Amino acid sequence: MGAQLRVYRRRIRSVSATKKITRAQELIAASRIVKAQQRVAASKPYADELTRAVSAVATFSSTQHPLTTSVERPTRAAVLLVTSDRGFAGGYNSNAIKAAEQLIKLLEDEGKTVDRYVIGSKGIAFFQFRDVDLAGQWKGFSDRPEYTDAKKVAGELIDAFVTPTDEGGVDEIHLVSTEFVSMLTQSPVAVRVLPLAVEETDEPPAGGPFPLYDFEPSAEGVLDALLPRYVESRIFNALLQAAASEHAARRRAMKSATENAEELIRTLSRLANNARQSEITQEISEIVGGANALADATAGSD
User: Fold this and answer.
1) What stretch or stretches form a coiled coil here (predicted)?
2) What is the pLDDT of residues 255-268, one digit of tens each?
3) pLDDT per residue over 209-218, tens digit each?
4) Cis bond upstream, residue 228 (ω within 30)
5) How far apart are the first and last CA of the chain?
6) In the CATH scheme, what is the homologous superfamily, with its name and number, of domain 30-254?
7) Where in the chain are the domains?
8) pLDDT tens across 190-209, in order?
9) What is the pTM assigned to this prediction?
10) Residues in CB range of 13: below 8 A, 6 or more apart
11) Sheet containing 172-180: order of strands
């Protein structure tokens, strides 16, 4: 067997092994997307009702709560970035990191100092490679987050928010994550989580008019209980959306990699066949040439 043919066949075996891996990753991601979508849908009613309750308290009370009061001249902001713990997800992580970098630049252009908080090994590695200090980092739960994970992250962010800026606290908290739009579309989004933006509008609230509440023991006490859970809910929903987006992006990337491997195998097989045909043609030519030379030698001796 010729050297060139051996090279082609060795590459075909290598690409075939890679194809098995990418195909398995594609199937695993496809099976997890459905569960991730179901978790997003299951969390929506609670998040919607909690948002309505917080909106109602903010609407019907004049209480100035620390989590709803904006600083006149904010000087320090926190940005929470949600990425994945694993790769093989196409542009999922790079798009989220790019959105975070754009938001950070915008905040710094406004004269604010930015503290970075990151969820996911990929985002942590991105900033550590560039020697950027992180105010907080978490990993190990990006593909299947639990409410306790969101509660842990929210607790640290709320502590930073209620701490004075001269003691290391922040005036604003922003969240950058990936929204699951469809199996083919996942979009990075940036939202301000704290302080809450209270807007006056003539439009009716989503879900109908607010019921009339009596606040016990007080509106401030209700906000003390609801607002931390509201922040936890926002972060948990972002984690669930990001997990579904991660699986969808990984499935799409692995499907593309599998198709590319199949195309490469077809190309290498065609080249291997051409090399084999060339070898056969050369062998036949050598045999025919040898036979002719032997016949000429025999005729000469006669």
Assistant:
1) 254-281
2) 888 888 888 888 88
3) 556 666 677 6
4) no
5) 38
6) ATP synthase, F1 complex, gamma subunit (3.40.1380.10)
7) 30-254
8) 988 888 765 555 555 555 55
9) 0.80
10) none
11) 136-138, 113-119, 76-82, 172-180, 186-194
